[in-house]
Amino acid sequence: VWVGYGNGTRISGRSSLITITASGSSYTVRVNSTTVSEFLIAAYNVDKESSTLFSIPITDLAVPDTFVTSVTVTDNDLASGFTRPTVTFVRASNERFGSSGAINGYLVFVATDTTKSSRVQLIGTFAVTGNGAPSQTVVIQSGPSFASTVGYVHVVAFNAYGEASTFVTATITDLYAPTVVVTSLAFTDTNRLERYIGGWVTFSRPSNATEQSDGVLGYSVFQGTSSVRITQIATATVPTYGTGSMNITISNMLLDPGATHLHVAAYNSRGVSSSGVSLAIPDFVASEAVALSLQFTDTNRVSGVITGSLSFARPNVENS
Predict the structure, then answer these.
(1) What is the dihedral of CA 138, 144, 150, 154, to 10 degrees?
(2) To which H or E segment does residue 292 belong?
(3) How does pLDDT run across 29-65, given as a tens digit for each residue?
(4) Distance between CA atoms of 285 and 95, rounded to whole angstroms?
């Protein structure tokens, strides 16, 4: 068995690769498919080798040698310590179809480091059909969330024969809403109408380092029940990181049905914290009790001047 160029001619200077003397034998040889395109088989006996050569074209079945570019990862899980990555990448510009190393698509894995053995789970597959559109931007969204220790994504081309030996990795940054919590929450209601509130929410902010590490942009005030936030009613940004008290003004407003508490939570560019503090709304209402049987007796007989006693009956609804 010899190797040839593809025109039935043996490559000059090359000896035979193998000699087959027994039927049913199996051999494995390695050739460079860029310079060799066929196997040439000649029979021989004790006298000489046959001049007739049988040609078998070499089909190079290979995994892809392409790889993607511009891989970026965004975390869509707002909880600290967990990530749910969305992976964006640009398809390779040298994808091949219907030939050696042809591509079927791309696989996206999450992993604990940059090595293949560290892969934890396949989170998405992008299938390539036809000649496709090389340099196209592809987005893969992970369904489940992973612990932040799973801090990498791998993107690799594949075909029917396996994965490309070269793959691209990118780190996952755990982006999360703040976890900081304020203290000493208080509210002063200056509106005296029932179910209406207005005034100032005051609280103590966390430390400078805590706010900064969470990327706190400000604080939001919500109305709700003791455990559920219903609607946001006010917000204020932090001028600078640092400790100290903070006031947020609530304009006169009608409370939502069922609203009994005020909640305060920090927010950053990722969202509003799921942690926070709350207090029962002190809805100060002016008394609606009405005095009864009002009487006044003037005992001063000078015009323009009154002196005397005012009497009335107190209502029985004072306590309510």
Answers:
(1) -20
(2) strand 292-298
(3) 777 777 778 888 888 888 888 888 888 887 777 888 8
(4) 73
Nearest to 80, CA basis, from 152, 173, 144:
173
List own/partner pairs for 51-59 with CB under 8 A and 24 or more apart: 53/2, 53/4, 53/8, 53/10, 55/4, 55/8, 57/6, 58/3, 58/31, 58/33, 59/100
Q: Which amino acid is at 67?
A: F
| Buried/exposed 181-207: b ≥16 CB within 10 Å, e otherwise | bbeebebebebeeeeebebebbbebbe
User: In sequence order, which residues have a C-beta less than 8 Å from that of residue 21 and are 6 or more positions away?
Assistant: none
Task: Return the structure tokens found at 111.
Answer: 């992993």
The pLDDT score that the predictor gives to residue 287 is 67
Taking the C-alpha atoms of residue 5 and residue 184, their distance in angstroms, rounded to an integer, is 85
* Cα 80-274-202 angle, rounded to 5 deg: 120
Number of Cβ within a 10 Å radius of residue 16:
14
Spatial CB neighbours of 195, under 8 Å, sequence gap ≥ 6: 254, 255, 283
Residues in the chain: 320
